[in-house]
Here is the input.
Amino acid sequence: MQLNDTGLLQTQGYINGQWHAGNSNTQFDVINPANGECLAQVAEMAAEETRQAIAAAEQALPAWRTKTAKERSAILEKWYELMMAAQEDLAVLMTAEQGKPLFESRGEVAYGASFLKWFAEEGKRVYGDIIPQTNDRRGLVLKQPVGVVAAITPWNFPNAMITRKVAPALAVGCTVVLKPAAETPLSALAIVELGRRAGLPAGVFNVVTGTDAPAIGGEMTSSPIVRKLTFTGSTPIGKLLMKQCADTVKRTSMELGGNAPVIIFDDADLDRAVDGAILAKYRNSGQTCICSNRMLVQAGIYDAFVEKFAAKVREFRVGDGLDAATTHGPLITTKAVQGVHDKVQQAFAEGATVVVGGKPGSQGEHFYEPTILTNVNSSMRVFREEIFGPVAPVFRFETEQEAIAMANDTEFGLAAYVYTNDLGRIFRVSEAIEYGMVGVNEAALSSEVIPFGGVKESGQGREGSRYGLDDFLETKYICLGGM
Ligand code: ADP
Here is the structure.
């Protein structure tokens, strides 16, 4: 791993404006999933350091929240520029620790940086209201920062999942303690380094690195100082954290698992649907929360779809993401590979047919072959559970009603995709399916300007867009009497 700016490779946590080796002075390994090599050793921190970080965030809060939005915005703008200037180094770092191909990492860095710029602008537009009441009184409504925010982020988007939380929090005047995933701390620490260079005051943004997630999360959720937890990760951990937050009645934002359908109707533009299905399914080798889990294809177009879809999948170049020819990288851990394979084997045992792939890859122990399965049904785990790997089960349906019922037959509700050229059907289906986001004839649905988030057990709250500020603001009512 070769960086132009070696200062971006940081291996310690960051508390109160200082790099911090951790109180135990021990480290954990960060592994390159493409080859199993140890990239770096990072400070092992746990409950005690989390407490220190929360105290630093509390101490920094009064000065940060009373700065003008314009002053905070200037720092976020500068941070954005530094991040874009470092795009290549950040992409190399990300591919090395996460595995996604370099072109995807470059894209994620730009996507991550876009939240800094967006919320630098949007943070200046936090307005209140004046409510007309009786003759001698007036009601004022103010929006105020919630206070100290704890953030827990996953490894699949090691940059953007951080900026999408931290940028709106900081923009409105909150201070933050972040726990990045232990698989991908290097991207997080590089972001901190750039924030430091951009002029973030001490204590405003703190990062606790470590492998003991329950200890760090336990401290964050039990602390009465932390007023809000924002989490992206799996549904079981999200539920656990919500329960833990109940004791201090903390506000929570949860971006949890998905089980996205791609619904392709007979009247769809087939080539567009195939391209969309490829992107929605195989980006980051299937390891995104909005990755399509289930291809639902209408009977009249089913065979043609499978043929074209399989032809494209056979063109993939699976390998080390740092190799320019690679289109699809490894999975994050051997445990992830096993989890994907278990689901595929269960489908085989119940009669599924493999069209492409169907087994671990030959490139190394973190790889899984891009896979397409047919003869699948709704009792299989590949229908019911989030696959989080490069496996596409293709289900057949006959009618619009059946497609809607299949799409909704899950406890999840994050993203869904619909391919059809019938305008009435676009509205009927988009409105009937229980999802927070629907891509109609479009698979690349996320950006900083849209409200990202799910319904049902996929979570609560929205990130990005003007709605993304709400999660970090309290509404205060002031009654002016005796007028
Ligand atoms: P994944 O399966 O994608 O790793 P997780 O929900 O396990 O999803 O992880 C997402 C984030 O949650 C990571 O930063 C992880 O370290 C953290 N995490 C996992 N377990 C806990 C826990 N008990 N308390 C707090 N954070 C946790």
Remarks:
- The CA atoms of residues 254 and 460 lie 5 Å apart.
- The first helix runs from residue 47 to 66.
